[in-house]
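Limitations
The structure tokens in this dataset are predictions for the assembled complex, not deposited experimental models. Users should treat interface geometry with appropriate caution, especially where small molecules or nucleic acid strands are included. An illustrative entry is reproduced here so readers can see what is and is not provided.
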Amino acid sequence: MLKVRVIPCLDVKDGRVVKGVNFVDLRDAGDPVDCAKAYDAAGADELCFLDITASHENRGILLHVVQDTAEQCFMPLTVGGGVRTTDDIRQLLLAGADKVSINTAAVNDRDFVKRAAEKFGNQCIVVAVDAKATTSGKWEIFTHGGREPTGIDAIEYAQEVVSLGAGEILLTSMDRDGTKKGFDTELTRKISDAVSVPVIASGGVGTLDHLVDGVRDGGANAVLAASIFHFGTYTIAQAKQHMADAGIPVRL
Amino acid sequence: METVAIIDYGSGNLRSAGKAFERMVRENGLDVRIDVTGDAARVQNADRIVLPGVGAFGDCRNGLRAVDGMWDLIVELVHQKARPFLGICVGMQLMARWGLEHGRHAGFGWIDGNVAPIAPGTGFKVPHMGWNTIQLPQEHPVTRGLGTGDLSHAYFVHSYAMEPADPNRVFGTATYGAPITAIVAQDNMVGTQFHPEKSQATGLTLISNFLKWRP
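Predicted assembly:
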């Protein structure tokens, strides 16, 4: 039976993990490779690096981080942040990423998703959908970390990028991100029902019940969280056991 | 010293594949060199061949064909000289006669059958992506010690799967709405639909078995 995936996400800036990871026995909490190894050993199903490096000149540092991680962790790795060209994707894949997450570049140029999927295969193209609820009971795509509205309907957008070749949707509720109030399960369910590809729910996890809600109510195929794992609030094993106890198939 | 060639023809990420093989060489104390190469002259002398592959069947086929002499060399080494062969993901699918992804493309044709779209039914997402358990309907030296039930998780990412004409070629299956061919084997050849290099303990065990396999 296929299992629901639990994916810790590390924000990486200039080659360092932002905020760090609070694990016992971790040699360097700010080193993405050490953090990745710890999550690998802890039973994470995949790992996600989100590069928030401001300058494009420092991209080389990220590639080194991806290389070092791929050499030591035999688990799937998704890398996102600042992916703008097919050459960016190629470099990340060559460094050892398995999947690449495209965000703003897909909003600005929908055809980029098509070109990327044709060149590298749908299986490695993840499109990040950052959405906020509007007053009319819909959800709108936002860019720039939730600051820039685009007027694009989130559900229609998700369907469009999937038709262009996205192999997976990384869905973040910008209303919930950082709030610890749980996923926007209504949004997650709408998107999950609207597309044929797997959906990763992201944004807002504060308790282990939230992970269950994202799958059971939201229909997500994977759940992504950052702070509950990084700060040691819960371990990956605790999260999975809690999900298993709620009847969700996970890899224990 | 043995050499294992992991064939690089521009398809996907070979760094972790190379490193996973190197780790298993070290842990088993083997006298084996891992060579990730797109050079037919170097593959020529390899004792074992590993063919990875991601993306579409036709693209992988064309990518491999575009490397001077590589396709014919693989046929010669694997099919005629019977060197141990491991195909991974699309590398495994290429062992089949036909791939039906975006048209109809000829594979190596070592295993009779097609690579066809998976059809898990309603409520199942495609691609089949993530960790699934594998069942082993037959024993094989390369799957020894792989574990059963919840100890047999492997990482899959695919929308097409091999349907061998002869069910005796199937040495591993997964269930995703319907049964999916996860491992095939025949003579000196073995192929996995999942990614051993991404499958933590399950994958490393399989790689280790392949390195020691004397078909």
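Some entries come with short summary sentences. For this one: The mean pLDDT of chain A is 92.
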